[in-house]
Amino acid sequence: MAENSGIEWTHHTYNPWIGCTRVSPACDHCYAEAWDRRGMQQKQSRWGPRATRTRTKTRPNLRKWDRKAAELSVRYRVFCASLADIGDNHRSIEAPWRRDLVADIRAYQNLDFLLLSKRPQNMPKLYPDLMEDWPVNAWMGASTENREEMLRRGEALAALPAQITFWSAEPLVGDLGPIPQEILPSWVITGGESGAQYRHADPDWFRSLRDQCAAAGVPFLFKQWEGRDQKEIKAKGRELDGVIHDGYPQPLAA
Ligand code: SF4
């Protein structure tokens, strides 16, 4: 169970900065933007091309998480980021913020950092040091909410030197269709949309993804059905055709 995160597939979350700009249909009901709007009251939003991103005031205690993982002989997954996009190339994001993130990844070898982006094509320019020497505990992910984004981001993701790659096909808003073998990642997470304005996902879209992952030997995690709120989503359970899919890739010991 996540310690500082309600997200099923991670133990912790880590936001080096906060703020972003919407880029694709998966952003339509961005929970982070809504969270920011609620918390900022009269102050300026951090969302949009003209909005300034801000450095996170309270840094997570990565040292503590790392030590605990070592003590328990487990690996903790650290999702980065839930309130930003690490591939965001906005001018207000300062180079040292990115350098600190990479330094943390290299320093805490008992943690697997799950870098998820809707802009994987920006990674080479933004993180040249990662490109030169990509650590095995940096898993790189791309959001693939429909076929168009799967093809576009999947290709950019496959071009990166990360050894473990993943897709977050969530919220799934369209059929991904046949997946080109050359862009298949190491892991696929999928699920329906949550919130009052959730979009309906056809169960066959999930089935197709499940079956293609099974045929290719790719671990598959079905996180949730769609719903207005957590109560409704929990009531629907996590089964897809009577089976809970909780696949994860095998971490590569650093
Ligand atoms: S990329 Fe993520 S954080 Fe940024 S607007 Fe889209 S959903 Fe929100």
Query: What is the CATH architecture annotation?
Result: Alpha-Beta Barrel
Overall morphology: globular
Please indicate the percent range of residues in DSSP E strands (runs of 2 or more). 15-25%
Compressed to H and E, one letter per element, the order equals EEHEHEHEHHEHEEHEHEE
* Count, helices: 8
Bound ligand species: iron/sulfur cluster
The Rg value, from CA coordinates, equals: 18 Å
Mean pLDDT: 95
CATH fold-level label:
TIM Barrel
Q: How far is the first residue's CA from the last residue's CA?
A: 23 Å
Instruction: Assign the CATH class.
Output: Alpha Beta
Number of strands: 11
Folded structure, characterized:
There is one protein chain. This protein has one domain: TIM Barrel, CATH 3.20.20. The chain contains 8 helices and 11 strands. A 7-stranded parallel β-sheet has the order 1-4-5-6-7-8-9. Strands 2-3 form a two-stranded antiparallel sheet. It has a two-stranded antiparallel ribbon with strand order 10-11. Bound molecules: iron/sulfur cluster. Iron/sulfur cluster binds next to helix 1.
List keywords for this structure.
254 residues; alpha/beta; TIM Barrel; 7-stranded parallel beta sheet; two-stranded antiparallel ribbon; 30% helix; globular; binds iron/sulfur cluster
